[in-house]
Amino acid sequence: MTEQSAARTAIVTVDDDPGVSRAVARDLRRKYGERYRIVRAESGAAGLDALREMKLRGDRVAVILADYRMPEMNGIEFLERAMDVYPAARRALLTAYADTGAAIDAINVVDLDYYLLKPWDPPEEKLYPVVDSLLESWLADDYRPVPETKIVGHRWSARSSQVREFLARNQVPYRWYSSEDLEGQRLLEAAGADGMRLPLVITPDGAALVEPSDLELANRVGLATTPSEAFYDLIVVGGGPAGLGAAVYGASEGLRTVLVERTATGGQAGQSSRIENYLGFPDGVSGTQLTDRARRQAAKFGAELLTTREVVGLEVSGSARLVKFADGSSVGAHTVILATGVSYRHLTMPGVAELTGRGVFYGSALTEATSCAHHDVYIVGGANSAGQAAVYLAKTAKSVTMLVRGPALERSMSHYLVQQVAGMPNITVRNCTDVMAAHGTDHLERLTLRDSRTGVKETVDAQWLFVFIGAAPLTDWLDGVVQRDERGFVLAGPDLLTAYTRSSERPRLVPSGWPLDRPPYHLETSVPGVFVAGDVRAESAKRVASAVGEGAMAVMLVHRYMEKL
Ligand SMILES: Cc1cc2nc3c(=O)[nH]c(=O)nc-3n(C[C@H](O)[C@H](O)[C@H](O)COP(=O)(O)OP(=O)(O)OC[C@H]3O[C@@H](n4cnc5c(N)ncnc54)[C@H](O)[C@@H]3O)c2cc1C
């Protein structure tokens, strides 16, 4: 990092006591003032304003120090909100001795890096070593130049919304401009684009791309898309929690590991607004945060992470396993872990397909939330993912109506979420309700609903519909290579034996065609050396924790397999 770029990087300190605030800033300036800008604020709200301003200017923030005891917004609340603006900044809490309990709790809530006890004199002993180490870890792991990708799009253009979601899920910072606003029109004009084909994406180096494909975007914004080697120890297919878990364990244990993801790492979990049942996060964690950390962790250990590369085939060639891409190229490895999860099931009613991305969305609640603020929103589905989206969207939407096929939410949703839904006054739950059709010309305008108890149909005005009606594995590309159950889930270990013993007259110890004299390992598929982890596995638990756990366990079995190669 150059001195010039460091000059725009800030260390931010927030304390409501003006004397203390000045003293912290003075001590910080003394040691770091030449290389970093020291920004101080005297309340959480003022601190957030300063962070937002810096964000707009494209400044970097390396470290944020906050006092714990502040009126209106305490230090933990401030740091939690600061993370939304600068997720990579290192965070420390200043506490009095009596508040160390709160600081320890904060380690879970805001993933606190340190807590400092007041007073911090002498700073050489108590303050600087901590700040040095925070800066060091920020520089080592998280220093990434902030690119300013601009998207000019229209809120009812399906591709505009896909591009936004693609960049957001890949943690690529972007700024959105509506093609109807003056600034958007200026950018279109500057790029010589007529606005008929949207979005226009302007990359940080000034290239203007009209309606770019995901692959084109990935290449332009610096995401890796091509394997650097022809052969690896382990190829992980899918970058959700299971795949990321496998990549972290594989790479950290010395396996040459490449992860191949068709869109953006994070999988379904990356689309969850708040995961409340993942071990170690008693106050919940957003899926984006959790999976972004996992991605960085995998990269830190040396795993190669490829995005926008869809795997379309698997071939066995002697002891090599070849994974094939749509463009005909392939990459080989000793072992493969399939972690392709499940994909949202689509509504098949008339009008829905045509309006997808133009008011009808699958799992895009996080990226579209700002666009539908103050509007009436409909959600189809009655399971946890629908409940999470309802609670999340209800914070900004005027109203949220949940359209549920069953007679009661309690049948399909976790108790804690049913309670959260019930506690939001602007959420209405309509049980026994089916969506019959979607209507609109260039975007969703109305929905036809039917009460399944009475058969009565009704048409309602609706501009926003989010669909969460379950998911299915998309595993046809494994046909004829890897055994799957009747719904497409991949069979492994003992489930393979069950599948075969059921259909054969005499019980067999191994699946047919199995070439080894040992039975498949627990997560091993019908092809030796090809393992499966997470939601795509038959009989899997469909939870983040189990997906991560299976990713780790599959790596342990990879080692066992490779020892006997
Ligand atoms: C909105 C929502 C909220 C949720 N909330 C919770 C919760 O609070 N707690 C909880 O425990 N669970 C929750 N879940 C479930 C949890 O997210 C999943 O169980 C978990 O993500 C499964 O992980 P996975 O890695 O097996 O699969 P996925 O997360 O589905 O990831 C699979 C990845 O593989 C990629 N892929 C698929 N096919 C290919 C291919 N051919 N080539 C390359 N890449 C491919 C996909 O793009 C995807 O990124 C939620 C799910 C949703 C949708």
Question: How would you characterize the overall build of this protein?
Answer:
With 565 residues, the protein is α/β, with parallel strands linked by helices. Helix content is 32%, strand content 22%. The chain contains 17 helices and 26 strands. The strands form 6 sheets. Strands 10, 11, 12, 13, 14, 15 and 26 form a 7-stranded mixed sheet that branches. Helix 14 (384-394) links the parallel strand 18 and strand 19 (399-403). It is globular. The two termini are 44 Å apart. 44% of the residues are buried. Bound molecules: flavin-adenine dinucleotide. Flavin-adenine dinucleotide is lined by residues 237-243, 260-263, 267-269, 271-272, 275-277, 310-311, 339-342, 363, 384-385, 388, 474, 534-535, 542-545, 547.
